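User: Watch each token:
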Amino acid sequence: MSSNNASAGVSGLAGITTDDQTNAAQRRAQGEFVRGVSSARNWISTTQEPTAEEKADGAIWYKPAKGRYHMYVAYNCPWCHRVLLARSMLGLEDVITVDVLYPNRSDDDEPLGGNLWKFCPQGQVGRNGKHMVFPECTVDTVLGKDYVIEVYKLAGITDQKSVPILFDKETKTVVNNESAEIVRMLGTAMKEFQTTDIDLYPEEKRSQIDEMNDWVYKEIANGSYKAGFSSNQDVYETAYKNYFEALDKLEDIFSKNKFLVGTDKPTEADLRLLPPLFRHDPVYYNRFKLNKKYLWEYPNIWRWMGDMTTCAPQMEPVTSAGYLAHCKQGYFGRTGNGTIPVGPEGYPECYKNPSFKGN
């Protein structure tokens, strides 16, 4: 499969880019990472109405409300990180409730099988032989389920097991499980409940944001996974090359702009860039073999990291050392002997230090 086809995408509601599913099984067999497509694609909106095509697909449209919606997330998942960042940047903590899953998925000998997201606040013994408890993890406070797949089944969805999930507590239905669309909803439909002055999707910048979102997804957010999860050397090397070319482009952009599309405050494009870059030095550099450079070797990107991690009062919980611990457990605890790296030292606090040069 050519690199052009490998990087192609398709658009859903709000122009959200997802992986092209053409010959997906064959491409995976050849060692390419092809991300699946989320199927719960309903929408919270104040003004929009579904098109005839969307009505034919069974899309349901929900009204904005405080306390009605709930999110199921895993801190180690970069796609969940998006929706948590939106919630924090917009100050919606008292509007949308959250439950946090364990960073490692189920084993094959568990009741519902393996590779399933689960609620496990009591912790478990990992591959490294250590019993790991993460204080941020919760039970399912809404439905009392043990596994995310049970949440889907209750809502009548049998082909999904991914997170994040935006859930309607009133009707007990899954509103949406596409992170990009959830971010868009929080930044537009839930604006009346927002407590910060950040506009994630300003009207005058929307075409630029959409274009930047598409590029960030293909080359960095999903591009990192194409390197890290490829079992084909050529595919890995292409993804590696594209990823670091993208970082070079970012360094140039941030030499001219404080944020991606030239605004004084972060937009949706910046939000969607933060999860992969937050993980680059402490996780992706080794786990995904993206080891050409550390982020601190890019002074303009590093400055942006500091601006992003301090852009709103409630950013600390979703950019903290505790949050990073979930990331390390999730990525390293599922492979080999499950040994979790102690270093690199100083992360993620160093993102706020413009003079940091590694250890």
Remarks:
- Strands lie at 9-11, 17-19, 43-44, 61-62, 69-73, 97-100, 124-125, 131-132, 165-168, 173-176.
- Residues 233-256 form the longest helix (24 residues).
- Confidence is low (pLDDT under 50) at residues 1-12.
